Amino acid sequence: MDIRDVARYAKVSSATVSRTINHVSTVNPDLAKRVWQAIEELNYFPNTQARALVSGRSRILGLIISEITNPFFPELIQQFEDIAVENGYEVLIGSTNYDPERMTRVIRRMLERKVDGVAVMTFGIEGPVIDELAARQVPMVFVDVGPDSPYVRTLNVDYQAGIRQGVQHLAALGHRNIAFITGPLRQHSAKVRRDAFIKAMGEIGVKVGPESIVEGTHTLEGGMEGMRVLAKNKIMPTAVMCSNDMTAIGVLHELYNTKTRVPDEISVIGFDNIHIAEFTFPPLTTIQMACSDLARSAIEALRAGIETPDDASAAKESKIPTRLIVRQTTSYPRGTMQADRQQTQPTRRSRRSI
To answer: Cβ neighbours of residue 281 under 8 Å, at least 6 residues apart?
Structure first.
């Protein structure tokens, strides 16, 4: 079966079928409806490679992530693919695991498949690799920071707003001895989150000492090790904020191993709001950076670069909002009257987000 069979069934020309399948906007809507109905009834599968040869576009978007084992990224992939399919695109996924050689292979594979655009949700991409994409005028979108290129758009995550909410939430509970476990500080986003924490602490009148900041790895193991380092401080912090949820879950695990009660003896806040954060014990208070917002903004930016590349009015940057989600890993500092009173009351229910 080919498009001629579909054309006969729909009583249209083969050219109309071709233009409909390739999402040409000038096709009469009534004719397009007949074509798609014929495709469904005949169970016809268009040849995407042939379409790419005719149209000059593959309708494939590349998505580059850091590591598939971090639950944040599968959630992002799902949202990205759902929105891409809604807009008539397929997705080619590459995971770099922070390996420059692997990144080079991922980029090469995407160029071989002639992707229409690439969303880069990772860090540390080498300049020459980006040059390979830019030389072919492939639209790209980056998180937080990207190279200076007419083909690049940037998604700026509002780390400051979410982390400020987290710090102010802890301060309202009475915390002042608050520590922070960062991500790998070679990553731009990890440094931005750390700096946002230091600034927010300054806003509540607290100067952060070096003993209150520990470099982590954005992993469970990094969270456990970071908590072990903080536990060696002369005075252990009453609250710990983490650069991502995986780190925070590692902190919870280490505190469980040492029989330290959360939140009665120490409060914990994560960042990302991955799905399993709601099901830790206790459920994790965290700062939400919605995968749906990232995915939708990334695809809108790529579509603008692909479909209207000469539109000078198109925004080169998009802002990704963040907000605090309060659950059950934060409470009053240990040893305070409020904390003692809280421990004598029934278990609290999860509080709503703010």
So the answer is: 252
Q: What is the CATH number of the domain that holds 208?
A: 3.40.50.2300
Tell whether 130 is covered by a domain.
yes
The confidence score (pLDDT) of residue 354 equals 44
> In terms of domains, do 179 and 295 share one?
no
- Under DSSP, the state recorded for 70 is S
Identify the residue whose tokens are 């200076």. 148
Q: What is the percent of the chain with per-residue pLDDT over 90, rounded to a whole number?
A: 62
Query: What distance in Å separates the CA atoms of residue 305 and residue 19, rounded to the nearest whole number?
Result: 21
Same domain for 299 and 239? no
Give the per-residue pLDDT at 69: 84
Does 354 map to a domain? no
Query: Which 8-state DSSP code applies to residue 195?
Result: H
Q: Hey, which bits of the chain come out as E strands? A: 60-65, 90-95, 117-121, 140-143, 152-157, 178-181, 213-214, 239-242, 267-272, 285-288, 317-320, 323-325
Q: Which two structure tokens, joined as six digits, stand for 256?
A: 């469980």
Q: Please say whether the beta carbons of 167 and 241 come within 8 A.
A: yes
| Per-residue pLDDT at 351 | 45
Type of residue at 294: L
* Residues 21, 30: Cα–Cα separation, whole Å: 14
Whether residues 135 and 226 fall in one domain: no
Domain count within the chain: 2
Contact 218, 244 (CB under 8 A): yes
Instruction: Render pLDDT for 192-245 as a digit per residue (tens, 0 to 9).
Output: 999 999 999 999 999 999 999 999 999 999 999 999 999 999 999 999 999 999
Give the structural domain span for 120.
Answer: 60-157+291-320
Residues 188 and 332 in one domain: yes
Residues 330 and 217 in one domain: yes
Query: 82: part of which helix (H) or strand (E)?
Result: helix 72-86
pTM attached to this predicted model: 0.81
Q: Are 100 and 115 in contact (CB under 8 A)?
A: no
Rounded average pLDDT over 101-129: 81
Q: Which pLDDT band holds residue 157 (cuts at 50, 70, 90)?
A: very high
Residues 136 and 173 in one domain: no
- In this structure, are 279 and 226 located in the same domain? yes
- CB 118, CB 86: distance < 8 Å: no
